[in-house]
């Protein structure tokens, strides 16, 4: 759990990169050392102020190029901000992009010692942890091979194993974890959870919104180098989806495709059949999702889609009028479609309803993520998104010799 003690403090941090504008090698040579005419400033971070308390787990999210990795590097002291100030306390371990921290010509073993010493361990301490590090990495057969021959997965395994054994107060993880195979990812996430329970601070860059809602107690959404939202992960994922939707519409408009902007999901609601909106949904209910659509120019062969997500952002159920082989009349003025999903058995918790208007070829014309929500009451027999009553039998002592 987060305390009130800040371990990281950023004050008005901005980062400028200078981008060269020449296109060809020849142009670069001709213009070498010349004026700023061929250079352009690019602000990857703009005026970011953040305070991160000890014991918190922060997810950094945002579209490609929004500045997540740059921010993580600024927090880790790997890059200097162009303006502003970064303060950090405690021992840091950072898992940034592949290639950072390891020397390609050295073996895995040598890199473990080198990397651990950079992160602040003495040789004696590294001797003590060495077997554990190799064991966690699962690459003992390659530990005396030069790391330039490693696959990216092997590389990340070793780097992560070192990072978690240096007893960090603050762990920075860029998306490198996505490189490992699923079993290793799970192992890393378990380790991160253990770190959380030990009160360490974790800052995670990820594209997995599920990971953010599941693992983090706070999320920072970046857009074009600025903080667009800072707060509850669940809310941040909604803001992020809205941001992507706005971008998509802008993009479509700038390409002269105003047909995309013409379609609208106007509203939606969810309830159990025979009961009012807002009442809890019980196992065995018929769920009614009602959604209203319109299209400025008129749209033939359109498709209405609904999806139900868990609070972790995982899709639990989805269907479309196309799947149901239902053809809808031309859409122009507001028209309401009602989906009735019979005999639902959701596990306890909150669920979100997403509604989309699509063209017949599957192009999304308008998405309204989390446009409605419902709750399923708690029951103590089981956990998960499926409601089902378990039966358990004790089969008795088993003779293992047979
Ligand atoms: N060394 C650099 N020189 C010039 N521009 C850079 C440099 N590093 C990053 N940038 C630019 O800064 C912007 C932010 O990059 P950054 O890698 O932080 O984004 P990101 O949010 O992590 O993106 P992604 O999700 O694609 O990993 C990008 O436009 C990138 O091209």
TrEMBL record:
SMART domains: AAA. Keywords: ATP-binding, Nucleotide-binding, Transport. PROSITE patterns: ABC_TRANSPORTER_2. One of its GO terms (molecular function) is ATP binding. Coiled coil: none annotated. Residues 8-249 form the ABC transporter domain. It comes from the Bacteria. This is ABC-2 type transport system ATP-binding protein.
